[in-house]
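Bit of a strange request maybe. I'm writing a small parser for structure token strings and I need a real example to test against, not something I typed by hand. Could someone generate the tokens for this chain?
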Amino acid sequence: MAIFLNENSRIIVQGMTGGEGMKHSGRMLASGANIVGGVNARKAGTTASFDSGDQPVFGTVAEAIEKTGANVTVLFVPPPFAKDAAIEAIDSGIELAVIITEGIPVHDSAYFWAHAVATGNKTRIIGPNCPGIISPGKSNAGIIPANITGPGRIGLVSKSGTLTYQMMHELRDLGFSSAIGIGGDPIIGTTHIDALEAFQNDDETDAIVMIGEIGGDAEERAAAYIQANVTKPVVGYVAGFTAPEGKTMGHAGAIVSDGAGTADGKKVALEAAGVRVGKTPSETARLLREAIK
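Reply from user aminoacidic:
Good idea to test on real output. This should exercise your parser:
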């Protein structure tokens, strides 16, 4: 099995005809993702050409769904237009929206997240500022390289894109059921807890790797959830053990303030919940191997 994305997923790309959209749509197609079209109101009725063939471009998400049966959208839309694009996806009722865009204003993210909730949570949002999700051998929605690893029985949820890739590489011989990069912004649609719940309920995921980072309390809340609800082995890594207090480190949500949100504090909380935490990604991979023996 896989969480949120599988071989039956039919993907459209909002912003397909832009530079990033074309590049990563091509990569998704090459990895076997079932992309069925793109969306760009100004280029409706045209096609976008890829090595695997031409893709139709629709004027709206609703039209794309009507014509193709799409149930997943990936957004490569510049920050000033991302809120409207996300709202359009939500209003269409599409099942999954993967928002890759970095630099979306926090109040815009808060607005479209609240809109999704107010309209019945019909659309699961992954991101923004994330690498997306891959279910190796089944589908790929986002910018995660598909050649790092193959199918397996490990679930991975991570705030960091590059650490997602590194952990997939570290455990490439074991493979993954799904790997999901949830993004590092202060407001995101899918959380560690959402992914943990899905992996716990997935019969083909045997163990889970959780990657967090400094700032906020998401990892502490995930630790409490693990202690109460997760029976599968979980190992963790928290990026930012050497980060100076008060300095934003890469992600907008990764800032330690008044001693809260430190890597050491998160490590303590996770270990209290029975999660073994590595000080490096390589150590974390070793702990996962030990956990599944």
